[in-house]
Amino acid sequence: MTAMPVSTHPRQRRKSYTFFWCSLGIYAEALLFLLSGLSDACELPPPFEAMELKGTPKLYYAVGERIEFKCKKGYLHLSPNLMIATCGPNHTWVHISDVGCIKVQCTMLQNPSFGKVHYIDGRFSWGARAKFTCMEGYYLAGMSVLHCVLKGDEAYWNGHPPSCEKVYCLPPPKIKNGTHTFTDINVFKYHEAVIYSCDPNPGPDKFSLVGTSVLFCAGQNTWSNSPPECKVVKCPFPVLQNGRQISRAGEKFSYQAIVMFECVQGFYMEGSSMVVCSANNSWEPSIPKCLKGYPNPRGGIFGQELDAWIVALIVITSIVGVFVICLIMLRYFEHRKKGCQSQAQLFYLCF
């Protein structure tokens, strides 16, 4: 019987496994050796706002190795600050800072005539803002706020500086049934004023000026108030029951007429004692009321509550009287040792 040949493949696989683990061990020792040699090396420093690294960065830098930086776009190098850093021991970089790079600046703005410029951010480099204001009596013509923006490698303001111009006003509006002073003037200067008045009314009631009679030029083509109105205002005759007028007695009551009231004796007033004729032909506040009695500081009305108090007083007096009579009778029968055998029986007989 012929013997089968023995396969040699398992031995080759065992040798290949041995070679793999030996190679892995050698690589691990080499890596540990490399890391131990880099224990004092430096990693790439964190990014800066104003500068960036020149050339291609590496994972590690040996002690004593130097790197060079340059200013980013929009920044200028300020001499004699160095742009070179050296790797020192304990993973530290020596002399590294971006203070040597400053932002590109816009041209410094001048104060406009009769005005001022204020740098909101305290600087005039790109990203900064400039705000303009004018003196009283002048207005700003142009953009009130400019922004310093970066275009390429230069910084520019995003508009032309404004100017401060004198304030003028066109004539104020005309009104129906009235007029204003200085109708012959076409242009009014700052704070110049006009006075409105109403025309005579051919009818039985006069026109009343409702609104502000004096207007002045407060800004460029801007008057201090809206123009007034001339119209007939007539409030109804004020009637107060159980009261009377103490001022402004009459038959006609026009705009802003004032009436004072008082109540007759035995009545008190609820509401305001003074009313004014308003522009909508009504009294403001509304006419008060005169109520019977006197105001009670604890609430209610003395005059209206008097009858209720009398009834309550009579009831209470009656109860107290009955109790006193019973008490006197009890004392009397106890003294005489006659009558009821107990207080309960006496109380029953009494009631």
UniProtKB/TrEMBL annotation:
Localization annotation: Cytoplasmic vesicle, Secretory vesicle, Acrosome inner membrane; Membrane
Disulfide bond sites: 263-290
Residue ranges occupied by any Sushi domain in the UniProt entry: 40-103, 104-166, 167-232, 233-292
Pfam families membership: Sushi (PF00084)
Entry keyword set: Disulfide bond, Fertilization, Glycoprotein, Membrane, Repeat, Signal, Sushi, Transmembrane, Transmembrane helix
InterPro entries hit by this protein: CD46, Compl-Cell_Adhes-Reg, Sushi/SCR/CCP_sf, Sushi_SCR_CCP_dom
Keyword Disulfide bond: yes
UniProt keyword Manganese, yes or no: no
GO biological process, one term: single fertilization
Cellular component GO terms held in the UniProt record: cell surface; inner acrosomal membrane
Membrane topology, as annotated: Single-pass membrane protein
Regions that span the bilayer: 18-38, 308-333
SUPFAM superfamilies referenced in this protein's UniProt entry, alphabetically: Complement control module/SCR domain (SSF57535)
Subunit structure: Interacts with C3b. Interacts with C4b. Interacts with moesin/MSN.
Function per UniProt: May be involved in the fusion of the spermatozoa with the oocyte during fertilization.
PANTHER family assigned to the protein according to its UniProt record, in alphabetical order: COMPLEMENT COMPONENT-RELATED SUSHI DOMAIN-CONTAINING (PTHR19325), MEMBRANE COFACTOR PROTEIN (PTHR19325:SF521)
Protein's UniProt name: Membrane cofactor protein
Gene: CD46
